[in-house]
UniProtKB/TrEMBL annotation, chain A:
Designated gene of the protein: sufB
The protein's name in its UniProt record: Fe-S cluster assembly protein SufB
PANTHER family xrefs: FES CLUSTER ASSEMBLY PROTEIN SUF, UPF0051 PROTEIN ABCI8, CHLOROPLASTIC-RELATED
Coiled-coil ranges from the UniProt annotation: none
Organism phylogeny: Bacteria, Bacillati, Bacillota, Bacilli, Bacillales
Species whose genome carries this gene: Paenibacillus nanensis
Record's signal peptide: none
Automatic annotation (TrEMBL), chain B:
Protein source organism: Paenibacillus nanensis
Family, as annotated: Belongs to the ABC transporter superfamily. Ycf16 family.
CDD domains named in the record: ABC_FeS_Assembly
Keywords: ATP-binding, Nucleotide-binding
Gene3D superfamilies: P-loop containing nucleotide triphosphate hydrolases
Pfam families attached to this UniProt entry: ABC_tran
Gene: sufC
UniProt-recorded name of the protein: Fe-S cluster assembly ATPase SufC
InterPro entries: AAA+_ATPase (IPR003593), ABC_transporter-like_ATP-bd (IPR003439), ABC_transporter-like_CS (IPR017871), FeS-cluster_ATPase_SufC (IPR010230), P-loop_NTPase (IPR027417)
Segments forming domain ABC transporter: 5-247
Amino acid sequence: MAKSMPEMEEYKYGFRDEHKAIFQSGKGLTPEIVRTISEMKNEPEWMLEFRLKSLEQFNKMPMPRWGGDLDDLDFDDIQYYVKPSEKQGKTWEEVPQEIKETFDKLGIPEAEQKFLAGVSAQYESEVVYHSMQEDLAKQGVIFTDTDTALREYPELMKEYFGTIIPPNDNKFAALNSAVWSGGSFIYVPKGVQCEIPLQAYFRINSENMGQFERTLIIADEGSSVHYVEGCTAPIYSTNSLHSAVVEILCKKDSRVRYTTIQNWAPNIYNLVTKRAVADENATMEWIDGNIGSKLTMKYPAVVLRGRGAKGMVLSIAVAGKGQHQDAGAKMTHLAPDTSSTIVSKSISKHGGKVTYRGLASFGRNSDGAKANIKCDTLILDNESTSDTIPYNEILNDNITLEHEATVSKVSEDQLFYLMSRGLTEDEATQMIVMGFIEPFTKELPMEYAVEMNRLIKFEMEGSIG
Amino acid sequence: MATHFVIDGLKAEIEGKEILKGINLEIKGGEIHAIMGPNGTGKSTLASALMGHPKYEVTGGSATLDGEDLLEMETDERARAGLFLAMQYPSEIPGVTNSDFLRSAINARREEGNEISLIKFIRQMEGKMKELEMNPEFAHRYLNEGFSGGEKKRNEILQMMLLDPKIVVLDEIDSGLDIDALRIVANGVNAMRSEERGFLIITHYQRLLNYITPDFVHVMMQGRIVKSGGPELAQRLENEGYDWVKEELGIVDETVGQA
C-alpha cells in the first residue's frame, strides 16, 4: 500500500511554459547590471543611487554563517533581471495567452471570480496582470506593483522605502535593495477598512532567475488591510534564489495581516526579510506558511514601538527530503504594554530538517509587555530532525515571557484508531497532520485553506509506510 | 450472505510474551456474545489483535469474516470488511473535528465519486447524536479531545451507528460510565441489533448485560475461553464472582503474561 514519495519530477507545479522574455540580464551581478535594471525601469536618480549603495553593502557584507547551509549558493550563477513583456495587462483579456495558461494551472482566475478584491500576479520580474475593485480605489486605497508605485507615488516611496529594512540590515536585504523588481505596494488611507483581502500571486519561471520582489505596505492611522500572497515555483535542476524584502508600517490604531503560503520547488533558496513596525495600539499579524525549497531562512518580525501595540506570527514549516526550513519570528518590544504571540508549527519528514529560530526582545521601556511563544514540531519518521533555538533579550524586569515547546511523533495509537475506522495509513497520517496545522489553516481565507490542505495532502502522500 | 465470524485457535503475543493461547469463537449474524473475566486475562488483547494493533503479533490461528481472512488484512481493510472495535481508550486527534472525521470514515467505505452528500451526512449524524443524547456541539469538537470518559464512549457508539459494521467488538464500553450513560450506550447497541450483525461484548461486569441481553456468555482466563454458557452464566458470575470457576477448573492464577 505504500506509495512512493512524490520526488522532484512529480513536483506539482513543475510545469514550465514557453513564454519568451523580451529582456534577460544574463548571469552575474555588477554595477552595470544594476544600472541597466534601473535604466530599463526609467527610475529616478535617487533609486539608482539607493541600488548602487546597496550593491556596495552587499559586496562588503560576509555571508551569514548561522542558520542554513549556503555553500552551494553561487551569486555569479544567477540571472538578476528578466522582463517578460512590454506592458502591463490591465484586463484579463490583455494578458498574453501563455501567461494566462500558467495562471490557469494555478487556479487564479476562478479565485478572482469568487471574492478577490484585487489580483496582482507577478510573472517573473514584472507584474503583468493587475486589477482591483473599484470601491477600494474610490476610498483612496493604493494597490499596485512597486515599480508603478515608484513612478506614480514617488513621495510615498521616497518617504518609506527602505526605512523599515535598510539595505545594511543583512546581506540578502542588501542584495534585494540592489536588484529588486516587482512586488506589491499598498497604501491604506486613514480610517479605511479593506474588508476583502488583497492578493498577489508570485511565480518564478526562468531557470536560475533570482526573484527579488519588494513589498511595501503602509496602513495609515485607524485603517486595516489583509494582504495575501501565495507562491509556487516550477522546478529546475540548478539552484534558484528567491530573496524578497517586505516592509510594513502599521500606524496608530491600524491593523495589518499579511498571509503567505509558499510552496517552492526543492531547489530554491528562499531567503526573505520581513519586518513590520507597529505604532500605538496597532496590530500586526504575520501568517506564514513555508512548504518546500532547498533552504528557507525567514523570520517575520514586528517592532512594537508604540504603547499597546500587538504583534503575532503564526507559521508552519514543512521540510521533506533534502530540505531545511530555518524559520521563526522576531518580536521587539520597545514600548509599554506591548504584547506578542508566536505560534510555530513545524513538520519534518523523509530526512527533512526544521529549525525554529526566534527572538523575543524587551527594551528598557517595555513595562508591562507580554510575549507568548509556542513551538510545536511533528516528526514523521526517524530520519527527520527538528531544533528549537529561542533567543531572549530582556532589559526590563516588569515583563512576562512564556515559552512552550513540544516535539511529537505521529503516534501508533492515533494511526491505529483512525485506521480502525477504515482510513488508509496515508489518509490517517494526513488527517493527523492536517489536525496539527489546523490552528494555521483556520486563519487562512477559505480558498487558501483549501489549497493548503491540497498541498499538505500531496506532501504527505506515502510519507509513512 | 448471513454474517459469519469465526475465530479459530487464535494465538497472539506482545513483546514476545504470549497472551492469547488459542481462542475459539463463532459469531453469527443476530447473535450477541459476551466475554467476561477478571483483569489481565487477555480480553482486551483479543479485541486489539482482531483489529490488528501493531503492538500485538498474531502467532497462530485464524479469524475470518464471511470466509475472508481478516488476519491477512491491514487494520483499515479489516474495518472496511465490516469489523468495528469500540475502544476502551479512544485516541484524541487534535485539530480534526468529529464531523470531518466521521464523514471521512463513512467515505472510506464508499467508491470514489460516490461520497455521501454533506446534507445527508449531517442529517444522519445529527439523528444518531440525538438518539445518544449527545450535545450537538460535539460534532464540531476535536475528535475525543477533552471528552470525558462517558463522552468518548458515546462517541464510539456514534461511530458504530454511522459505519454500520457487520461485527462489532465493544471493549469495556461500560467502564467509566454512570448509570444514565450506560443506559444510553446500551440503547444504542440494542437499536443496532439485527440479523446481519453480530456483537462481541467484552466486560468485567455483569451490569451492562442487564441492559443488553447476550445470547452467549464466555469466561476468559489465562488467555483462553475456559467456560461458555447462556445469560444465566453472567448472572451467576455477578452473584458469586469468579472463584467458583477457578476452583472448578483448578486455576490458581487466572492472569496471563503478567510479570
